[in-house]
Amino acid sequence: MDRGKMAEAESLETAAEHERILREIESTDTACIGPTLRSVYDGEEHGRFMEKLETRIRNHDREIEKMCNFHYQGFVDSITELLKVRGEAQKLKNQVTDTNRKLQHEGKELVIAMEELKQCRLQQRNISATVDKLMLCLPVLEMYSKLRDQMKTKRHYPALKTLEHLEHTYLPQVSHYRFCKVMVDNIPKLREEIKDVSMSDLKDFLESIRKHSDKIGETAMKQAQQQRNLDNIVLQQPRIGSKRKSKKDAYTIFDTEIESTSPKSEQDSGILDVEDEEDDEEVPGAQDLVDFSPVYRCLHIYSVLGARETFENYYRKQRRKQARLVLQPPSNMHETLDGYRKYFNQIVGFFVVEDHILHTTQGLVNRAYIDELWEMALSKTIAALRTHSSYCSDPNLVLDLKNLIVLFADTLQVYGFPVNQLFDMLLEIRDQYSETLLKKWAGIFRNILDSDNYSPIPVTSEEMYKKVVGQFPFQDTELEKQPFPKKFPFSEFVPKVYNQIKEFIYACLKFSEDLHLSSTEVDDMIRKSTNLLLTRTLSNSLQNVIKRKNIGLTELVQIIINTTHLEKSCKYLEEFITNITNVLPETVHTTKLYGTTTFKDARHAAEEEIYTNLNQKIDQFLQLADYDWMTGDLGNKASDYLVDLIAFLRSTFAVFTHLPGKVAQTACMSACKHLATSLMQLLLEAEVRQLTLGALQQFNLDVRECEQFARSGPVPGFQEDTLQLAFIDLRQLLDLFIQWDWSTYLADYGQPNCKYLRVNPVTALTLLEKISREMKDTSRKNNMFAQFRKNERDKQKLIDTVAKQLRALISTHHS
Length: 815
Fold this sequence. Notes:
This protein is an all-alpha fold. Among the domains are: 218-228 and 287-432; 434-608, CATH 1.10.357.30; 624-739, Up-down Bundle (Methane Monooxygenase Hydroxylase, Chain G, domain 1); 746-814. The chain is built from 26 helices and 2 strands. The longest helix has 107 residues, at 46-152.
C-alpha cells in the first residue's frame, strides 16, 4: 500500500511539472524555449509529456474554431466594406497623384530657388565662421611675420620677446590649427637660431676686440698722457676749471639701448671707425671706439633663454684665452720701443674692455674674475719685461721703456687696477738702466781720454777763458792776473769728464721721474749710481789709459795734474746733486761721493807708472852701455850713453814742474836709485869675469856724472846731498878699489862710523876676484915672454890676502 501511495505521489508531481512546462512554453518567447525543452528531454517522463502536449494542442484548436464561428458574419461585412473603400481609395489615389504632378510642376522653380537660398545661407554661415576664425588667427600670423622680419634684420632680442608673446599668448588660442602646430614645432628651432646668431655676433665681437685691443689701449694711454700733462700744468699754474675726468664720466659714453632695435649689419664688428685727429684736438675716449651692443644682446638673449650661466662661462673662457694671447710678447719686442708700446696697448685695451663690462653688466664678470685676470697679467707682464729688458743695451731705449711702463701703470691705475708691482719692477730696471748708462759712459770716457792731447789748455782771449771756467769750476788768482795768451794747468779732458759726470747725473735723474719716489730716495739713487760711475767706469778708463804701453811720461804727468783738479771738483759735484734733489748732504744716511778716492787711486797709479816708465827708459839707455872691461886706457869723460841718459832725465824732470812736490821728488829719487842699482848690477854681472882697474876708472867717471846730476838739483825740494845718497853704495865701492884702501876697510869693518860702511864684503869680494882673474891672466901671458915682475907678484899676493880676509869676514858674518 505504501508503494501505491508513493507511486501516486510521484505521478502527481510529474503532472504538476508538465503543467508548469506547458504554461512556460505558452508564455515564453520562442528564442528562450530551448532550456525548457531540454529539461523535458532530460527527464524520464518524455512520453507522458508528449501526450499532455497533444492534449493541450487539441484544446486550443477547439477554442480557435469556436471563436471563428462566432465572428464570421462580422468578418464578411468587413470584407464587403473594404472592397467599397478600395474603389474610393483608387479614386483618391488618382486625384492625389494628379495633384502631386501639378504641384511638382508648379513648385519646381521654387525648389530651385530654395535650394539656391539654402546654399547661400550655408555659404554665409561658412564665411562668417571663417571671418571669425581668421580674426582669431590674424594676430598670430602678424606676430609670426613680425618675428621673421626681426630675425631677418638681426634684431634678435626683440625677436625673442615677440617669440615669447607668440608662444604664450597667441598660439594657445588657435592651437587646433595645423599651421599653429607647425609654428609650435618651429619655436625651439627659432630659439636655437636666435641663440646661434647672437653667439656668432658675440664671436665676431670678441675676435674684433682681440684685433683692435692695441687701438683701444693706445687711445686709453693717450688719454692718460693728456690727463697727466694737464695735471702737470695745473700744478704749475692756478687751476682754471679743468677737472679730472672720473671713471664714472668715462662710462657715460657706453650707454647703449639694451633692447636696441636698430639693424646691425654683417660688417658690424664692435669697433667703430674713428678718423685720425690732429694732435691739438682732444683724443677720443677709448670706449668711444667700442660698440658693446653684441655683448648686451647676447647676454639678455641667453638670460631670457635660461642659459645665462652657459653664456657667462663661455665669455670668461674665451676672454681668458685672449688674455693669454695678449700677454704673450713677440720674440723681438726688445728691439724697438714700438714693440713694447704695442704689447702694452693690447694689455690696456683688454682690461679697459673688461672693466667696462664689469660696470655695465650685472654679473657677466665680477671683481674676483677681473682680479684673477689682472694677477695673471701682472705676473706674466713683469716676467716678460724682466726677460726682454735685459736685452736692452741702449740707455735711451731703457729710459723710453721706463716712461712707457709708467704711462702703462698710470693708465691702468685710473681703472682701479693695483700697479705697485710694476713700480717695484721699475726699481729693478733702474739698476739695469744704471748698468747701461755705465757702459755708455765707459765709451764716452774712453773717447775723451783717447782723443785728448794731454797738454794744458791754451786760451788767447777772455771769452775762451770764461768758456773753460764755465765748463769746469776752477779758480786761480795768479792765472787770472797773467796776460793772454796763457794756459790752464789741466788738459781738455778735465772739463769734458766733469761735464759728462753731470750729464750722467741728469740721465739718472730722468729715470727717477714719475716713480713716486721721495727726494731722499732719488738722491740716494743718484749718488750710488754716480759712485759706480766714478769708482768703476771712470776709474777703469783712467787705469786703462795709464797702463797703455805707448803712454809717455808727459801724458802721465798731465794725468796726475788732471786727476788732482778733478779731485778738487768733487765738492762741486756734491753741491750739484744737492741742488737738483733738494736733499742736504748733512741728512742722515746720505751717501757720500767717492770721487776723491777714485782720483787719488788714479793719481797713485799714474805715479807708479811714471816710476816704472822712468826705470824702463833708464834700462833702455843702459842697454846701450858698451864697456871694455879689459881696457888699460884711462878715460877722461863719461860714457856717451850715460851723458844721453842724464840729458833725458834733466828734460823729463823739467816737465815735472806742475806736479805736486812729493811726486816729482819721489820720481827723481826712484830714478836715481834704479840707476845706481842698475849700474851696480852692470858692474857685478856674472858674465863679466875679468875687469881692469882702467875699466873701473871709466866706470868711476860715469858714476861721477851721475853724482853731478844729483848735486845739480833736477827737482827742487831735496835737502843737500839727499839725492846723492842714491849713489853712495857705488861711490864707496869704487873709492875702495881705486884708492886700494883695504887696510882701512878691513880695520874699520863693522864700526858705525867706518869710511866704507855701505860696502858689502860679498860685493867687494866679487869685484876683487874679477880684478884678480885679470891680473893672473896677464901674469901668465907676461911669464911666457919675460921675467915675472916683482911688484905685480906682490900685488897678487896682496889681492889673495885681501880675498882671504874678505872670505873670513863673510864667514864670520853668516855664522
